[in-house]
Write a structure and sequence with these properties.
With 326 residues, the chain is mainly beta. The protein folds into two domains: 1-30; 33-320, Hemopexin-like domain (Hemopexin). The chain contains three helices and 22 strands. Strand 5 (110-115) and strand 6 form a beta hairpin. The longest helix has 26 residues, at 3-28. The chain is globular.
């Protein structure tokens, strides 16, 4: 082969390598990237394509029957996404009407909408009465009757309306007083009782040591309900996963059963509890898949969605469908 031909071939190879390296850099900063999970077999390409269709029923099969924690295949997620780097501190999740998923930042009052079909960020808005987002230790988010609520670890409730992309929205602030006795780690809405559920991670009140507390805040009175929190002996949860503790990090009401699903990041577990406080089931979550589970929500087809903070990596959303035959 002649020298000019060799030079042409070498130039082509160098150009190809540069294009390949550039594509890797673009991939790293992409808004969404499917997670490669060697611990289990992810869905096939054809199934993955169907999950990103506009039909919400493709993520799971809707059922009119009562669904329990055992109805979900926790060994094999239907899908799993990495989120953009800027949302590494994702904390709570809540589902709005029309299957719109909201999440929030851990330390700033910034709320963002995720298209849960492909993991892309639809919009983001901030809680602010000036130029900068409100700073607090935000631990949970819930949507209730046309309003959105954020809760801090000390039990402060921020009430506001959904904003458009880039908007700063005003808010009402309610001081519940829960922070004197509890460190709050999650928020949910129970429409049957018209209350917000604030779940405690660690009791500060010595009289409630060893108890998991679910405090209830009435939308009618804008105060805690008079009959006190739902108290659950932590051992009834921890003993089922061979652990000494159970420290909740998120809570959500199941749309079919009405029971409360609670995740515990440190114990890498999920539990189902009745509104009266009876523990129905507790299950382990795969530790390699869930480094720090903070948020939980349900899609309209009852698919279970959980979020994990990125820790030193990117945050993730994991989807668990109802098991076949349920």
């Amino acid at each position: 082969m002649s020298a000019p031909s060799n030079n042409l071939l070498s130039g082509f190879l160098v150009f190809s390598v540069l294009i390949f390296m550039a594509s890797l850099l673009v991939r790293e900063d992409a808004a969404i990237e499917p997670v490669v999970d060697t611990a289990d077999s992810l869905v096939s390409t054809s199934t993955a394509d169907s999950l990103t269709s506009t039909s919400t029923s493709s993520l799971g099969t809707p059922h009119e029957d009562n669904l329990t924690l055992a109805s979900y295949d926790l060994e094999k997620p239907a899908r799993r996404f990495k989120l953009p780097k800027r949302w590494r501190e994702i904390s709570g999740l809540t589902m709005l009407g029309e299957n719109r998923l909201l999440a929030h930042d851990d330390e700033r009052g910034v709320v963002f909408e995720i298209d849960y079909r492909d993991g892309s960020i639809v919009k983001a808005f901030a809680l602010s009465d000036l130029l900068d987002p409100v700073a607090d230790d935000f631990e949970g988010i819930a949507a209730a009757e046309g309003r959105v609520y954020l809760v801090s670890s000390s039990g402060r409730l921020y009430e506001f309306v959904e904003g458009s992309d880039g908007e700063s929205v005003l808010y009402n602030l309610y001081t519940t007083g829960i922070g004197q006795d509890h460190e709050i780690e999650g928020l949910a809405y129970d429409p049957d009782q018209r209350v917000l559920l604030l779940i405690s991670k660690n009791p500060k009140d010595p009289g409630q040591t060893g108890l998991v507390a679910i405090c209830r805040w009435s939308l009618d009175t804008k105060q805690l309900v008079e009959d006190g929190p739902i108290l659950i002996p932590a051992i009834t949860l921890s003993s089922r996963i061979d652990s000494k503790q159970f420290q909740p990090s998120g809570i959500e009401r199941h749309p079919v059963s009405g029971n409360y699903f609670v995740v515990a990041a440190r114990q890498c577990a999920i539990a189902e509890i009745t509104p009266q406080g009876r523990v129905l089931a507790v299950a382990d979550l795969a530790a390699d898949r869930h480094p720090q589970t903070e948020g939980i929500a349900f899609a309209s087809d009852n698919t279970l969605i959980v979020s994990d903070e990125g820790v030193s990596k990117r945050a993730t959303l994991t989807f668990y469908s109802v098991s076949k035959g349920q």
